[in-house]
């Protein structure tokens, strides 16, 4: 019986994963990624072809973080402080994920 060693698995550190979340390709488009994470309820969720977004504005998904002029005051989601990110799925559904609950990123096990 073979024993799988943790260090032999394909792994990625949280800091490297966070940097890769917003990577763009040679055309300036965000790269899609696959991700698995636990919800606050303890459910394991796996999503494919996700991209990071900053949310919705006037009903449309916003994919960049350029400064917004004359935007109505609203609660700051404080994604970096709260360690969360908004993901947009291929069907344009938004999903919030806590980065410390991410277990896999593009098939790699996420480690601290």
Task: Give a nutshell description of this structure.
The chain is mainly β.
Plain-language structure description:
The chain is mainly β and 112 residues long. It has a domain at 28-64 and 77-112: SH3 type barrels (Roll). It has helices spanning 14-21, 79-82, and strands at residues 11-13, 33-38, 44-53, 55-57, 60-62, 84-88, 94-98, 102-105, 108-111. The strands form two sheets. It has a seven-stranded mixed beta sheet. The chain has a two-stranded antiparallel ribbon with strand order 4-5. It starts with 10 loop residues before the first strand and ends with a strand.
List the helices and strands and how they pair.
Layout: E1 11-13, H1 14-21, E2 33-38, E3 44-53, E4 55-57, E5 60-62, H2 79-82, E6 84-88, E7 94-98, E8 102-105, E9 108-111
Parallel strand pairs: 1-9
Antiparallel strand pairs: 2-3, 2-8, 3-6, 4-5, 6-7, 8-9
CATH class of the domain at 28-64 and 77-112: Mainly Beta
Beta-strand percentage range = 35-45%
Order of helices and strands: EHEEEEHEEEE
The side-by-side strand order for the widest beta sheet comes to: 1-9-8-2-3-6-7
DSSP strand count: 9
Mean pLDDT: 78
Q: Which structural class should the secondary elements be placed in?
A: mainly beta
Gross morphology is: globular
Largest sheet: number of strands, sense, barrel closure? 7 strands, mixed
CATH second-level architecture of the domain at 28-64 and 77-112: Roll
Instruction: Tell me the distance between the termini.
Output: 29 Å
> The CATH topology of the domain at 28-64 and 77-112, please?
SH3 type barrels
Which regions are unreliable across 5 or more consecutive residues at pLDDT < 50? Answer: 65-72
The count of helical stretches stands at: 2
| Helix fraction bin | 10-25%
Radius of gyration, CA atoms, in whole angstroms: 16 Å
Q: Multimeric state of these chains?
A: single chain
């Amino acid at each position: 019986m073979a024993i799988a060693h943790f260090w032999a698995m394909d792994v990625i550190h949280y800091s490297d994963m966070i940097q890769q979340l917003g990577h763009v390709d040679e055309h300036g488009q965000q790269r899609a990624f696959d991700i698995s994470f636990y919800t606050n309820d303890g459910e394991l969720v796996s999503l494919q072809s996700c991209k990071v977004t900053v949310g919705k504005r006037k009903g449309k998904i916003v994919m960049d973080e350029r400064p917004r002029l004359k935007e109505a005051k609203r609660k700051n989601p404080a994604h970096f402080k709260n360690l969360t990110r908004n993901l947009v799925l291929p069907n344009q559904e938004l999903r919030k994920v806590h980065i410390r609950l991410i277990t896999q990123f593009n098939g790699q096990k996420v480690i601290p």
